[in-house]
Amino acid sequence: QHPDRDAQFRYLNEQARDHREAGQPVISVDTKKKELVGEFKNNGRQWRPAADPVQVNVHDFADPQLGKAVPYGIYDLAADTGWVN
Hints:
The structure is a single chain. By secondary structure, the chain is α+β, with helices and mostly antiparallel strands. It has one domain. The protein is 20% helix and 21% strand. The chain has 1 helix and 5 strands, in the order H-E-E-E-E-E. It has a 3-stranded antiparallel β-sheet, with no helix packed on it. A hairpin with a 4-residue loop joins strand 4 and strand 5. The longest helix is centred in the N-terminal third of the chain and has 17 residues. The two termini are 30 Å apart.
C-alpha cells in the first residue's frame, strides 16, 4: 500500500475525464500473466462426448518452439469497445 495510491487514482481519473470531455481518446491497457502455448491441462470446463477426451501434455514445461503468450487487452472508454490479443 503506497500512501499516495488513492491520490494517484484520483489524478488519473480526472485526467481521463478531462480528455474524454475534450473529445480525445482515452484507453485502458491491461496485461495478464504469461500463459504456456500448446496442449496443456486447463482447469476450466469443456463438455466433450463420452470417451473422447482432449489429449494434453503430461508435464507443463514450456514448449521451446511455441514459448509463452502474454495476453493483453485495450479498452476504449468513450467508445465502450475493446480488443484482446
